[in-house]
Amino acid sequence: MATRSTSRKARVDVNDVVGDVVPLVRAELDRHQVALTLDLAPGLPLALGDRVQLQQVLLNLIMNAVEAMAALADRPRQLHIRSARHDADHVAVAVRDTGPGIDPGTLDRLFTAFFTTKPRGMGMGLSISRSIIEAHGGRLVAADIVEGGASFQFTVPVVAAHADAVG
Fold first, then answer.
1. Is there a contact between 64 and 123 (Cβ–Cβ < 8 Å)?
2. Is 55 helix (H, G, I), strand (E, B) or coil?
3. What's the CA gap between 48 and 35, in Å, rounded?
4. Three-state SS string across 109-136, please?
5. Closest Cα partner for 121 from 135, 106, 136?
6. 47 in a structural domain
7. Can you give the residue range of the structural domain that contains 110?
8. What are 75-110's pLDDT values in tens digits?
9. pTM for this one?
10. Would residue 3 count as lying in a domain?
11. In this prediction, what percent of the chain has a pLDDT beyond 70?
12. What pLDDT, on a 0 to 100 scale, did the predictor assign at position 160?
């Protein structure tokens, strides 16, 4: 993820991006006994984005969730990935886990470069992920879930209706 490459924005189906990443993480999910649930909205409009960069963001969010749940012993390890229409101009992908959640004292620093809550973390994954999403014209946000766990959601703009007619 730390390599810089030229962004190649094109029409992309966010559900296909999820479908590309799931096989890459399947072994880790199995190894850590994490149950995966997909809730992908059908018929979403195409997003404008760099498929590889969006895959990198999703991969980072999933792996962070798996690591966050690694020591979980009091409840099942569950990962829920959801896609949906966010608003008229954006689609969203959310990654939600049942881990320990996010310390409210660190929530505002999560996306800061070199800030990490992991013993061996570099503190770059979320910072890079947010930069990628912002370069796409979207947002990446985090939330602590009261009943346990964390949620990370990114939005990316949809292809404009007039772009469909032109291109």
1. no
2. helix
3. 30
4. HCCCCCCCCCCCCCCCHHHHHHHHHHHC
5. 106
6. yes
7. 10-166
8. 899 999 999 999 999 999 999 999 988 777 776 767
9. 0.85
10. no
11. 81
12. 78
Can you point out the beta strands (E) in the chain? 10-12, 34-40, 47-49, 77-87, 90-97, 139-144, 150-157
Dihedral sign of CA atoms 122, 125, 60, 105 in order? positive
Q: Which residue has the higher pLDDT, 142 or 112?
A: 142
Q: Is residue 5 part of a domain?
A: no
- Calculate the alpha carbon distances from 111 to 52, 57, 79, 106, 130 in Å: 20, 13, 21, 10, 7
User: How many structural domains is the chain composed of?
Assistant: 1
Residue 1 lies in a domain: no
The residue among 144, 57, 133, 139 whose CA lies nearest residue 100 is 144
Place of tokens 């690591």: 67
Mean pLDDT of 18-45: 97
